[in-house]
Fold this sequence. Notes:
The protein is built from 4 helices and no strands. By secondary structure, the protein is mainly alpha-helical. Helix 2 crosses helix 3. The radius of gyration is 12 Å and the shape is globular.
Amino acid sequence: VLNKEIIDDLIFVVEQQLESSETKYVKEVYDSLLKKGVSEKESKLMIGRALLREADYMHSKGGEFSQERYRNYLKELL
Length: 78
């Protein structure tokens, strides 16, 4: 269960990714979710959960952030 502080932090990070030219793929997924009728907030939370999955993977297995793995988690949302 995510508390409000974690949710706020996740949404902040997702919003940064939506603005960044380095993470255009996040904006593409976000736009696709909106087109499917998912609300802005829920779309950001869904993307945030994918980001948390990557963080959990890094924590449990060690290693660096993987954009490829993160992209795959995002694709699962569509």
